[in-house]
Fold:
Amino acid sequence: MTQLKHKYISVCYGGIESYGGNQQRSSDHIIKKCGCGVVAAMDTLLYLQARCHWTDVSALGCIDGAVPIAGEKYDSCLIAMRKDYFPLLYPLGTNGLSLALGMNRFFRRHRLPFHGTWQPVTAKIRDEMELMLDSDIPVVCAVGAKFPKFWEKTGLSLQVADGLGQLRPAANARAHFVTVTGMDNEWMQVSSWGRKYYVSCGDFLRYARESSNPLLCGILYMERK
Structure:
C-alpha cells in the first residue's frame, strides 16, 4: 500500500485518540453540521506542519508539540481556520475550489512552499493520489452529493476492518470530504469523523460517474513549488 510516511494526525477526545479530526465534536454548530471540508484541510496542514517543522508557529497555533492534540485546542484552531481561510455556507458547507483558494491563501501568508489546485475526477485521479502520497502529502477528497437527486440518502460505502482483518460496511458518505492517507490497487484508506475507514477505489469512481458527477467529486492536488 502507498501511504503517508509518518503518523497521521490524532486528536484526544475524552481520553480517546481519534484518526484525524471529527467535526461532530466541535463546539461550533456550523462546523458540526457542515465542517468536514475544514477538518480535512486543517488536518492536512497539521500533518504538513509536523512533517516539515514549519518555523512560523503562528501558522497553526493549536500545535504545541503535544501528541495527540488536545480536543479543546484542536477545536479552537478549527474555528479560527474556518474564520480566516475556509468560510462555510450553512447548511451546504464548502466546495473544492474554495478549499484550494483557502489553502493557497494560507501558504502565501506564511510563505510556505506548497500550492494546491482542485482536480475533478478524471482517468488520472488515482495516479495523482498516489503521487501525492509518495510525496508524503495527505489527499483531501470530495465525495459529491447525489446528482441530480440531491435528496437521496444513500451514498458511498465506508468500511472498517473487524478483528479478523475483514472489511464490513460501517457508514456511507455523500456531499462529504474525507482525507486519503493510503491506497493500493483496490482500496483507499481514509480519515473521516475521527475514524479510519476503507473505500473501494472502483466504487468511488463509479459513484462519481454514475451516482454523483465528476465535477462534484475530486481531490485537492497539492505539490511543492
Summary: The two ends are 26 Å apart (CA to CA). Residues 109 and 210 are 39 Å apart (CA to CA).
